Amino acid sequence: MKVGTNRAARPLALFGTLLTLLFSACQKKDELPTPTSPQTLAAPGGVSTNAVGVSGAKTVCYVEVNNNNFYNVGKYSLASGQPLFDIGIIFAANINYNTSTKKATLFFNTQVTNVLNNRATYIQPVQARGIKVLLSILGNHQGAGVCNFTSQAAAREFAQQLASAVTTYGLDGIDFDDEYADYGTNGTGQPNSSSFVYLVSALRELMPNKIISFYYYGPAASRLSYNGVTVGSKVNYSWNAVYGTYSVPAVPGLAKANLGPAAVQITATSSATAATLATRTKTDGYGIYLTYDLPNTNSSSYLSSISNILYGQATTYTP
Question: Any signal peptide, and if so, which residues (predicted)?
Answer without folding.
Answer: 1-28
